[in-house]
Design brief:
Layout: H1 4-31, H2 48-52, H3 56-66, H4 75-79, H5 86-97, H6 103-125, H7 129-141, H8 155-170, H9 174-185, H10 196-203, H11 210-239, H12 244-247, H13 261-268, H14 273-292, H15 298-310, H16 320-323, H17 328-336, H18 339-361
Helix pairs in contact: 1-6, 1-7, 1-18, 3-5, 5-6, 6-8, 7-17, 8-9, 8-10, 9-10, 9-11, 10-11, 10-15, 14-15
Length: about 375
């Protein structure tokens, strides 16, 4: 568990960055055209709920309140299968505990608390000394997708699970790490790559006989598969297909996703400037992974590589900036890097963050 010093280190960074994000969101709503209503939001910018309850938040609320079997004759009911269950399931439990509260406020409070816990755990166990902790926190709160960590999206929960898996793995508690990796796989599709962290650590640990390592790896795979298997079984039961989370991608003009589909999309649609913008952001993190590859534990490097690969399964690179936010090993690598590398990454993320926040709050497709 994090110490009080870790909580105290995180709180000012998180509070200050959230305040700045809220201010940018207000400016976006009161200044720029809403792409759905075709007018300026005006006083709506002063309402956090009106500003931030957009895009996937609507689906997470639908699943939290009604589940995956709700109004399947409606396209939104079918599309719900494309969203992973752990975050809305957790929010549904909290809503039952506090039925007087709205999904938005329950999700917002929970997301901020999970983000704070994740950062405190990382500061306590994954970075060395107050100076590196300061740089790590700067990299995290300044990331372009950081605002997703404080609204009812999956990023906060996924970040927490990533940190927990890495901490448990470094303590050689591989089975527990695999169990939490399985939960991460029911939070975001990139969580499927997280199993590499404990599996590779176990495989290369010379403190155990080879046969014992393989037995533990087999058990880890079984434990990891249980949550995801339950999810697929439930989809087959209520949506008619265990592959519904893939099949429903067609509702977003992304039938049958596959790795590097985003690259193919750039070649097929070379005039999509937003695709090149997000693709460039992805390329920066590929370069960073190559730069830090030998400095990271192998399993953590493979997790980041797998997550970046999985993130290319759409017909465009949109959303990449939020998918890389929970990649903690890369954030640690940036924090440890020389200023001539670290500072441009931070500044670039800040500029990208402002653009994406403004796009998000005005329903501009550039954001997603």
């Amino acid at each position: 568990m994090p110490t009080r010093a870790s909580w105290r280190a995180v709180l000012p960074w998180l509070a200050a960055s959230r305040l700045i994000i809220v201010i940018i969101g207000v400016i976006g709503v009161v200044t720029f055209l809403n792409q759905r209503t075709l007018d300026v939001g005006g006083s709506l910018g002063l309402s956090l709920k009106a500003t931030w309850l957009k895009w996937d938040v609507e689906y997470y609320e639908r699943i939290a309140v009604h589940g995956y079997a709700y109004q399947l004759a409606d396209l939104k009911g079918q599309a719900a299968a494309g969203f992973f269950p752990l975050y809305p399931l957790l929010m549904g439990v909290l809503l039952h505990a506090v039925p007087f509260a709205s999904f938005f406020w329950v999700g917002t409070i929970a997301s901020n608390l999970m983000t704070m816990a994740a950062l405190a755990l990382a500061v306590e166990h994954l970075v060395d000394g107050p100076e590196q902790a300061r740089r790590f926190l700067l990299v995290m709160v300044a990331s372009a997708g950081s605002f997703y960590l404080s609204i009812p999206y999956t990023e906060s929960l996924f970040l927490l699970l990533v940190v927990v898996v890495i901490v448990l793995t470094r303590r050689r508690r591989w089975l527990w790490a695999a169990a939490f990796a399985g939960l991460a796989a029911t939070t975001r599709v990139q969580g499927l790559a997280l199993l590499a962290v404990p599996v590779i650590a176990c495989r290369i640990d010379d403190g155990l006989p080879l046969a014992a390592r393989f037995r533990r790896i087999a058990l880890m795979i079984v434990v990891f598969s249980i949550p995801f298997g339950i999810y697929l079984w439930h989809l087959a039961l209520v949506q008619g297909s265990a592959e519904a989370f893939i099949e429903r991608q067609a509702l977003w003009d992304n039938p049958w996703p596959y790795p590097f589909k985003s690259v193919v999309g750039l070649l097929e649609h070379p005039r999509w400037l937003s695709g090149w913008l997000h693709g460039g952001f992805w390329s920066v993190y590929v370069v960073l992974l190559m730069r830090y590859w030998k400095r990271m534990p192998l399993g953590e490097a493979l997790f980041c590589a797998g997550a970046l690969l999985i993130s290319t399964q759409q017909d465009t690179f949109h959303g990449i900036y939020r998918y890389v936010t929970p990649l903690v090993p890369l954030a640690i690598g940036v924090a440890e890097d020389r200023p001539e590398w670290r500072q441009p990454i931070v500044v670039g993320n800040l500029l990208f963050a402002v653009i994406m926040i403004l796009a998000f709050v005005t329903w501009n497709r550039l954001a997603v």
